[in-house]
Amino acid sequence: MNAMILVTVMVALSLPGVAQRMPRPVLQVVQTIGSTEEVACLVPVGKKLWVGLLGGGMVRWDGRRAERFDAADGLPGNRVNDCTMAGGRLWVATDSGLARFDARATVFEKAARGRFLRVVPGGEPTQVAAGGGTGGGTEDPGVLTATADGRLLHVRCGATDDDAEEAAPCRARMVRKGLPVASSMAADRYGRWIVGGIDGRVLHSNGTAVRLDGPVTAVAFSSDGRGAAATPDSFYEVLPGPLQTVRTQRRFDEQLADDGSLVRVKAPSDRLVTAVATWNGRIAIGTDIGLYAADEGRRTADGGGSLSSVAAEPVSLGGCPCGPRLSSVELFRGRLWVGGFDGGLCRLDSTGWTRFAGPDYLPADMVNRLLATRRVLYVATLKGLVTVDVQGRFRKYVEADCIGNLQGACPWHQAVPGVALDPMDGTVWVADAGAVHNVKGNRWKHFFRRAGINTSEITRIAAGRDVIVVASLDSGLLVKRRQDRRFSALDERHGLADNWVMDVTVGEDGAIWAATCTRGVSRYLGGLWTTFTTREGLADDYTLSVKEIAGRMWVGTLKGVTVLSEAGPVSLSAEDGLAGNEVHDAVEQGDRVWLATDGGLSAVRYSRSVFR
Fold first, then answer.
1. Same structural domain for residues 430 and 497?
2. Are residues 232 and 273 in the same domain?
3. Minimal CA–CA distance to 556: which of 536, 572, 535, 579?
């Protein structure tokens, strides 16, 4: 299911009156790996269950085998927010678009661009009000979908007859504006809908609204037309007519099943139940740590009519166990290692994935940066530094070790955001939130205020042949040449685009590259600054990472990755097949480059071709 996706950018280089075969850069998505940790939605279809994952795309599970569909299979990114069946097709709402899947197809078809939070089946509301149907013939009845900017849209695609050469395009019609940020949504066959928001508001299609006692976790219509809404603490019956609510039962572990019934779920303690569905004689339960399932025969009545209890077992769907949002990726001893924003450290080898987390292996599960040397993997985390040697032994270095011993082998502040290899002497530079340390074996040399480190907002550190560079959120760059004893400021006053720097690297030519928060990426070479923004072809001015690979600069942004080279810029986003739009790190492995995104891992291939 890994269809290869090509994105090309033409470079406008020409000589008047001369026909040329112009080189152009090409990016190919060759593989994606998502997370199966956080379930967003469940849709039973026949004997199979579709599972939507916040960082792993869609999985079709038959009870034994899991078949994965992700950004390489037409999904607009791996970050799935919701899914539903409508008009005989599966519809999926993601952070980057809306897509649908036909049973006869092998890949998803993109229906709309944008950030979609919820999607439900929905006929045309105006036709329903007039007593009409939802459309005849082979027309798709469409869906109702809630966007991140508070709009409710009705999306319908054209006829898809077998005789048609191609499907007609999909179109969106505005139904309502000013919705809350939708945390749940439901519609019935008559075109009525209910939207629940994270602010506790419940809106009905008749225009009325109520506010509940907390974020709305689920809404549904029962067969008799009554609505139901749930918050973390209570269930409410939403009465017809002017919108009213009646609190029913106060429970903390109940969920609405797909048929509107109440199910008491025995999930792992302190875990969030995100979806419940009855399917193929089983009950499926989605949580923020994965999928659980139980035989319906084990569902016991609980004295409350449709209320019942289930005890479920975990289901393995594969995928990266470090969560959907990945902060860093590195190669160490031939194996791929990734760090998650809150999922710890994961290793991929021939046997599959292995996860290492706190407190046994890490001081914190938030990994900021990975660095591999020949014999050691360095893991910078929110609460300290960890090393992993070639024997797989872990060692922690934390701030507490330096209390009363400021010359010890330890960081001076809790958070360690950056680590870099010195190409000249093989030592490692470690940056904590407010100090810098040069590490050689077990000896640490500390640099603080007297050395010019005048910020407590360090974000990254980089080392070149002639320079050490520290990036910060408030002071731009701090630079130390080899012959210097102190770090000196290099900031907006000197031509840097923005003092808020997310990442920094030093190129092979000695140029300093700074990825800024909202003003693109700046290059400093020979005393001169050059800044690249969307005007020069950058995917977005909010840049997150910058790294040189094979003589080209890979710039991660909030809207994809851009590769800068002499051939011109080329970009790739979730709409083009990337696992996620936020690109936080990159590492080269053979003929591919792995990207750590907010939707999992993507492997892409850069090549040069000519116009034909």
1. yes
2. no
3. 572
Answer whether residue 402 shows pLDDT above 80: yes
State the chain's mean pLDDT as an integer: 84
CATH code, domain with 224:
2.120.10.30
- Residue 405 domain-assigned (yes or no): yes
Shared domain for 188 and 70, answered yes or no, is yes
DSSP 162-185: TT-SSPPPEEEEEEE-----EEEE
Q: Which residues make Cβ contacts (< 8 Å) with residue 62, sequence separation at least 6? A: 47, 48, 49
Token couple for 411: 């960081």
Greatest mean pLDDT among 81-90, 169-178, 365-374 lies in: 365-374
Domain boundary among 240, 259, 278: 259
The pLDDT tens digits of the residues spanning 152-167 come to 999 988 754 444 445 5
Number of domains into which the chain is organized: 3
Q: Are 453 and 478 in contact (CB under 8 A)?
A: yes
If one counts every other C-beta atom within 10 angstroms of the C-beta of residue 349, the result is 12
pTM of the model: 0.80
DSSP 390: T
Which helix (H) or strand (E) is 345 found in, with range? strand 345-349
With residue 128 as reference, give the H or E element that holds it. helix 125-129
Q: Are residues 292 and 220 in the same domain?
A: no
- Six-digit token pair at 419? 């680590």
Please check the confidence at residue 611 and state whether its pLDDT lies above 80: no
129 and 174 part of one domain: yes
Alpha-carbon distance 430 to 149, whole Å? Answer: 40
Both 214 and 140 in a single domain? yes
pLDDT tens-digit series, residues 356-375: 999 999 999 999 999 999 99
DSSP string, 223-289: TTS-EEEE-SSEEEEEETTTTEEEEEEE-SSEEE-TTS-EEEEEPSTT--EEEEEEETTEEEEEETT
